[in-house]
Structures are given as C-alpha cells and as structure tokens.
Amino acid sequence: MGYTLAEKLLASHTNDGRATAGDIVEANVDLLMVHEVLGSRILDVLHEMDFKKVWDSSRIVVINDHWAPASDINSAEIHRRNRNFVRDQGITNFFDVDCGISHHVLPEKGLIVPGELIIGSDSHSTTYGAFNAFSTGLAATDSALILATGSCWFRVPDSIKIEVTGEFQDMVMSKDLILKIISDIGPDGANYQSMEFHGETIDKMKVGERMTMCNMSVEAGAKCSPMTVNGYVNKWMETLAPSKRWKPTLPDVDADYSDTRTYDINSSPLGPMVATPDNPTNGKAVREVSGVPIDQAFIGSCTNGRIGDLEIAAKILKGKKIRNGVRLIITPASKHTYMMALERGLIKIFMDAGGIVTNSTCGACVGGHLGVLGAGEVCISSTNRNFKGRMGHQNSRIYLASPATVAASALAGAITDPRSV
Amino acid sequence: MSKELKPVTGRAWVFGNNVDTDQIIQGQYLTVLDYAEMARHTFEIPRPVFASKVKKNDVVIAGRNFGGGSSREEAPKVLLQSGVGCVIAESFARIFYRNGFNVGLPLLIIPNVAKLVKDGETVTVDISKGTVTIRSNSDILHGKPLPDRMLNLLREGGAVAWYKQTVGKH
Questions:
Q1: Fewer C-beta within 10 Å: chain B N or C terminus?
Q2: How confident is the model over B114-150, as pLDDT tens digits?
Q3: DSSP tag of A329
Q4: Distance CA A80, CA A74 (A)
C-alpha cells in the first residue's frame, strides 16, 4: 500500500524516514511562525523552561499581525516583547505591525517552500498546504518546545481525498467551494485528519484561490490540507523564492485514504454559498438567505483579503455606492497587497463606493479592532469563522461568504447573490 | 517530579456539541496578560454564571468536538485556572486535545457522556482508569483509557515539566 501526501511529507522529516497514518512520530520542523502569542504566552512558557537560545534563528518567523498596529496597551506590550525577543535572539525574519497577516506575508516573502514541515501558533496555518507543504497549527506550549528543540511529536493523520472537477461559474469563487465542502463534512468530520485536495479544478486554481481552500479546511477539524504543486505555485516560487531549492511531493497512486469525496461542479453546478451563524459549516445556497439585512460588510483576513479577492470586489463596486447606513470595511491581507490595490486603482473604487480601507491586520476577523461588531449587529464577512462573539458582541451575527457576495451585499444593504448585480 | 493522578470529585457542568474556543474564552480577552483576570470570562457566552460559581475540581462535560476553532491555549488554561479538574467529552478538537495535556488539564473521551450526566450532578473521575462514577446512583461510565504519552504528561504536570525532566537535562 502506498502513502498519502500527509504521510510522505511527514516521513521526510522523521529520523527514520517513516510515517504511517496512526503512528506517533517525532519530526524535525523546517519553519515555525509565531505571532502575538509569543509575547502574550510563549515567553512565559520559555521562562519556565529555563530557555536560553532558539534552536535555529533562521527557521523562526515572528510577526505582529493580530492587533496591528496596537489596539490597546496590552497589545502594545505584547508587540514590545516580541520586538525585544527577536533582537535578543537574532531572528531576522521579523515582520512588524506594518507588514500584514502572517498567512499571506510568509508566502509573499518566499518563506513557504513545497515539501517542508511548517508549524504556526495559529490554527489557520493549514493555509500553506496550498504550497504542497505539511503545515498545521499548534499553540503556546508546543511552540515553545519547538523554539527550544526544533522538533515536535505528531500523530500521523489519516487522509480524506477530495477530488474536484469542473469549472467555476462567473462570480463563484473557491470560497464558495470550500464552504460547500466543509458543510458536507461537518465541523468535526475531518478532525485529526488530512484533507488532501486533487482534481483539475484545484490544478487550475491560482495560488490565492488555493490558499482560501486550505485555510478553511481547519473549520472541518483538519490537521492539514496539502495540495500538489501546480503551474501557479511553480511561478510563485520562481518569482518570490528563486533561491529556494525544492522538489514537488506526490501521493502514491495506491495511497490509503479513509474517505474519498468527489465534486463535479459542471454536472452539479456550484453557486455562491453563505455560512449562517454560528458555524462555518452551516453553508447554504445564497438564495436561502438573500434579503437578510446587514449592518457591516467585511472583506479581508487570511482567508480572502488577497489581490484576487479585492479585484472581484472592485469589479462589483466600481462606479456604485453602497447602501446608506451600511459599513463596508476592506482590510488587504498585506502591505504588498494594499500597494498593488493602490496601483491598480482598487482603493479609489472602494473609497468612492463609500467603503473604509484599513491597514493590513487580522483586526476585525478576531474581534480585535477596525470593525468590531456591536450588540445585535449583522455582518457579512469574507473571513473564516462566524462563532458567537467572534467579531465582537456575543449577540452580533456573522454570515460568511466570498468577497463577491460580500461586495454585492454591501450595495444592496442585504445578503445578495453577486450574479444578480 | 512524577505525581500520582488522584481521582477528581466535583459538580458537572454539562455543555452541548461544538463548544468552540471562542465560547470558552472570547478573542477580545486574549490580550489580557494575567490568567486569573482572564479566567473571570470563562464560558462567558454559553454559561455566564460559570466563572463566579465554579469550584475546585468541578468537571466540564460536553458533547462532540469540544474546543474547535482557534488554537488558543488560553482555553484549557482558563479552565485550569478556574479549578476545573477534568474535561470529559464525546470527542475533542485536535489542537485543544494537545493543549489540554500540555498544560496539565486531564481530558477524557466517553461516548454519550453529555447525555448520561446531568448538569450539577456530583461525579468522580478516575483519570488513570478513564472512568466516571455518578454519585447519585453509582453508575460507572467507561471511556477509553488514556494513551501512556498523555498519562505521562499529566503525571509530570504538563509538557514544560516533562521537558525539564527529559530534554532539558541533556
């Protein structure tokens, strides 16, 4: 029996070169990303460990992205601690509050390399699966142990193979596809497992579209969600990481999968999806919720704040005005994304339409700042989670959708099918 | 120092399925630097009285997929800080499961536990054996015994203590 992508990617990081689903293995980490959790929690754990020096300063990335720039005195203190840590430890891969959201900044800086084992102190670290990497999220204590030792134990996950064929209709995005898939699987249907994506639809996707899919696999509980390398990933690596040496990893043809799911979006057409409160797996066809009045429309986050997301939103908003009384907030995924949007005239389109463009931050998605919801408010959002209280008051309500659906809804002041505007 | 895992006796706080980490501790409190202060907001959305009424060794019981969502270790930490002696669920989200043992919070998996235990009942949990005894009728519920790796983490008092005993010595 052959091996899955998750097994192969982990096996190349164990000392004996083995990793079979169900095994517990010790693996060597290629890259560890930590954000504000470093200053708020990890430093205390390191102190308890009598820690002196990171295992390899070149394999650690520190970023201040969640409350960027500081939203209050506590986040300012956390940022200050992170700055001191990278200085004391000689960590050069440091991205301060001016850079953007980790899951977009790391690939943009050429730090995500196919075949590697990447850990982040953030559940959405599954995003890097788009680059044919094994990547997953852990928290403070595991991050502290990796900072000290460079290795970590893993239970090698079973894998669910998801094969997608067919072409997207106009105004339908990879966000709609992943909302559909995780709604079919359920909030724990992929718990402890790898969601391995295949098929011509995935092969044809641009890097940003792939990242949206891998990003949200964690909402079905997935540990990781590796894809195979496609032409867009190749081009990305040639352009943004020309000095990196890597080889693509493929699963064996006789790999053992715990489940296989197939989607043909030609024979069963996929329309825009909306996840209703309070779980990302509550996906419904947009027509089932169209007309629900909204107070805020948000486009941003590690899920859908990239240039392709801003472009489709601008296409919908160009020359139009959002509904009076609705707030449209746009948070580009990185400073670089912001600059591209500026050069392409997108920022002007958003501002002319009545939108607010913020600096790049996790911000509103985590209920941190720059778009926090008040009691009873309704938001349609291109983000990843609509748990109760996620973006602010516990009685606010969040509907998750693609940037196209969010933009169309901002114009109408109510949830709207982007194909209708 | 390896410690014995004593049985835990306390009142049950019973929750449903898919209690995500925002329900355990909301994102808005993550910049609070002191766990004692943060713990005052534990389960603020689903059970606003929890933080003021919880007693040492109380047991949190839940349905499927407890602790999904954000990787925040603050979730098991505020439970531990609140005095919770054990969490028993029908299943746990994977990052929460790791985090629990890492910080020294025992977690047991018992099928249908949220239907079999009533809110407020007194229960005794034997972590080594993976059993729960309901005081009112002496019923014993059996879970899967914990893997040795997890039991050892608990006996050492969490991953940091384990590290200091093993890796850190060399």
A1: C
A2: 999 999 999 999 999 999 999 999 999 999 899 998 9
A3: E
A4: 10
